């Protein structure tokens, strides 16, 4: 959610400088209404994103099945990823400073395919460690060669 | 010739000409710079005074014999220095092949030892750039599966030496395909029959005492004429032609301002020209050969390359036909090959093409080799419908009619077909594509849905494979179909892996993480 806020601020600032220039008269005043549109759009989109953050968090989930792991995320663009245990090359638990303050962590599963396919952000730290141990153990048990 | 020998196989030295070949450019530059500086000074010294006359006014006869002697002496000194550097560099470069590793030691002041574990080696390739080729040398490159480990390369050995070493090591490693690793499967009915199909049969691991010959069976060859035709019938070539035509047109229309515009066009010309040249270079005299370990491709105009593609490492195969090739009936086959280290970089792209341009029968032959476990007939049907089929007939499950709101042109083409062994995905209306993914090579499956698709009841299914030119993605399927596909893939993949995972090498949890 905070990254959504940061993103909004960045885009507003990036798109907003023409507005500032117009307002302070360095650019012709007549441009002002036009030039205010991009930052306004950025603010609106960002604000929406921030407001929807709680719902998006609820939409994030994972399920451990017999042979694979399911990860679901996304509100507008929903995505469910199925990762077989035997395909997991390694499991990363990473904690950003912000997450550390809340006692959370991100669990990342790496397969031979490239891309952040399965990332579970915001897992409680204890649960993240448990997941990592469990997944690694299952991964080794069902290890698949490439 | 062995240096200080630690217990183990002897250390060999590379070919003596290696430092010359590696450093010829540097030497040339240095020699040029040296001569430039020195000759000026010399001339100044001999003709007296700081004003050295321009070269036109110089009369070589005016310089005394001493001048030439000194110059010759300096040149000899330069050559002597070069020779010493060359000799020292060569002396300190050694390589060793043990049962588990290949090690290369180099460097005089900053010693460097690189090693590659033989059981992690994915492929061994031979590269022959222009200069080494003229001297009869070749470079042996080892591609390793370890993430972060850069590839080890032995440069330069003589060509026969390199080939011998390569076949010996490949035999030792046993980089054979999965064809014979499957025990009689109880579950999958069609799979057992496929074992008798083409491409199956080569022994899994050649015993060390068996003669290591160059067992290469030629499969096909791309005639250079066809390659040139295919390169010219491509988008980049069209753009290049337009640019080339535009230049004289601009000059004619506007003799004054014309040349100025040309400057802007030049980068475009160069970049498109480079693209076309690279395609030509990488496809020239392209040969596909069958070896016990899989496939070997050999190509090149100036830099001749010979690269091995072990069948077991092929993750996905894609056949596509750009629109301009349709009148000729040409297709292109590319593969995703697993796990080359990140440092391989550009070499990955080179190794992923199994057929730069070919006809349909050639494509079928290549596919049969790359996917040895699939029924020939099955493959032909999948390919035929994949490349030419339209609409919901045959084996392919396609997007429903309502997908036309998001994808009006192509929705009748996008679809998938699942058999016991593979999943085939087709796409593209103008440029036709079919991708085939063996079930046991699926890395992960994802089903995704954007808001528009949700309103229409559609979903996309991504099948993840290792990085490479082939993307297996089925967009805009009916949601129920998509869910069924994902579930079926997960099950198929689990099942196929259980069958296929007779290990090619002893299963050691440490090693198997490939």
From TrEMBL, chain B:
The keyword Transmembrane helix applies. The chain crosses the membrane at residues 23-47, 67-93, 227-250, 256-277. Residues 200-210 have a biased composition (Pro residues). Pfam families: bPH_2. Residues 186-212, 489-514 are annotated as: Disordered. Residues 90-167, 294-350, 412-487 form the YdbS-like PH domain. Keywords: Membrane, Transmembrane, Transmembrane helix. This is YdbS-like PH domain-containing protein. It comes from Kocuria dechangensis.
């Amino acid at each position: 959610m905070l990254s959504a806020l940061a993103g909004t601020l960045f885009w507003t600032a990036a798109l907003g400088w023409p507005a500032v220039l117009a307002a302070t008269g360095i650019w012709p005043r007549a441009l002002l209404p036009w030039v205010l549109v991009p930052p306004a759009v950025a603010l609106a989109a960002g604000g929406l994103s921030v407001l929807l953050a709680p719902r998006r968090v609820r939409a994030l989930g994972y399920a451990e099945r017999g042979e694979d792991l399911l990860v679901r995320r996304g509100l507008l663009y929903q995505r469910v990823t199925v990762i077989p245990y035997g395909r997991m090359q390694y499991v990363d638990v990473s904690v950003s400073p912000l997450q550390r303050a809340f006692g959370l962590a991100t669990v990342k599963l790496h397969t031979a395919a490239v891309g952040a396919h399965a990332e579970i952000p915001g897992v409680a730290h204890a649960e993240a460690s448990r997941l990592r141990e469990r997944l690694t153990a299952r991964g080794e048990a069902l290890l698949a060669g490439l | 010739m062995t240096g200080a020998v630690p217990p183990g196989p002897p250390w060999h030295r590379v070919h003596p000409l290696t430092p010359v070949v590696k450093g010829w450019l540097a030497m040339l530059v240095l020699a040029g710079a040296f001569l430039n500086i020195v000759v000026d000074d010399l001339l100044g010294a001999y003709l007296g005074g700081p004003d050295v006359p321009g070269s036109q006014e110089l009369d070589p006869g005016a310089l005394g014999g001493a001048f030439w002697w000194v110059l010759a002496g300096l040149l000899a000194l330069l050559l002597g220095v070069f020779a010493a550097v060359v000799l020292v560099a060569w002396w300190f470069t050694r390589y060793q092949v043990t049962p588990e590793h290949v090690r290369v030691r180099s460097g005089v002041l900053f010693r460097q030892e690189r090693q590659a574990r033989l059981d992690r080696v994915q492929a061994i390739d031979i590269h022959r750039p222009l200069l080494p080729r003229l001297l009869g040398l070749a470079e042996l490159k080892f591609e390793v599966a370890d993430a972060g480990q850069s590839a080890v390369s032995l440069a330069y050995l003589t060509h026969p030496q390199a080939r011998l070493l390569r076949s010996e090591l490949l035999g030792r490693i046993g980089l054979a395909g999965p064809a014979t690793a499957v025990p009689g499967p109880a579950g999958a009915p069609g799979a057992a029959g496929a074992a008798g199909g083409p491409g199956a049969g080569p022994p899994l691991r050649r015993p060390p005492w068996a003669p290591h010959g160059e067992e290469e069976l030629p499969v096909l060859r791309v005639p250079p004429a066809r390659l040139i035709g295919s390169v010219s019938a491509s988008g980049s070539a069209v753009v290049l032609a337009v640019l080339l035509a535009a230049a004289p047109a601009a000059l004619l229309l506007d003799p004054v301002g014309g040349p100025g515009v040309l400057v802007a066009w030049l980068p475009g010309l160069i970049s498109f020209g480079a693209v076309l040249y690279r395609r030509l270079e990488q496809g020239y005299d392209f040969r596909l050969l069958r070896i016990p370990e899989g496939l070997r491709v050999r190509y090149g105009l100036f830099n001749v390359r010979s690269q091995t593609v072990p069948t077991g490492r092929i993750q996905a195969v894609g056949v596509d036909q750009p629109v301009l090739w349709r009148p000729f009936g040409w297709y292109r086959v590319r593969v995703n090959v697993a796990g080359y280290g990140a440092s391989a970089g550009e070499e990955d792209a080179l190794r992923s093409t199994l057929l730069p341009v070919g006809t349909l029968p050639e494509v079928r032959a290549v596919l049969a080799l790359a996917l040895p476990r699939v029924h020939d007939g099955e493959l032909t049907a999948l390919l035929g419908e994949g490349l030419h089929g339209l609409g919901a007939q045959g084996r392919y499950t396609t997007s429903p009619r309502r997908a036309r709101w998001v994808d009006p042109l192509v929705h009748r083409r996008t679809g998938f077909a699942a058999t016991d062994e593979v999943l085939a995905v087709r796409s593209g209306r103008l440029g036709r594509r079919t991708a085939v993914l063996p079930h046991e090579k699926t890395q992960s499956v994802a089903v995704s849905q954007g808001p528009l698709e949700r309103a229409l009841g559609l979903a996309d299914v991504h099948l993840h494979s290792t990085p490479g030119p082939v993307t297996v993605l089925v967009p805009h399927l009916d949601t129920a179909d998509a869910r069924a596909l994902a579930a079926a893939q997960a099950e198929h993949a689990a099942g196929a892996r259980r069958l296929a995972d007779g290990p090619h090498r002893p299963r050691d949890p440490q090693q198997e993480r490939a």
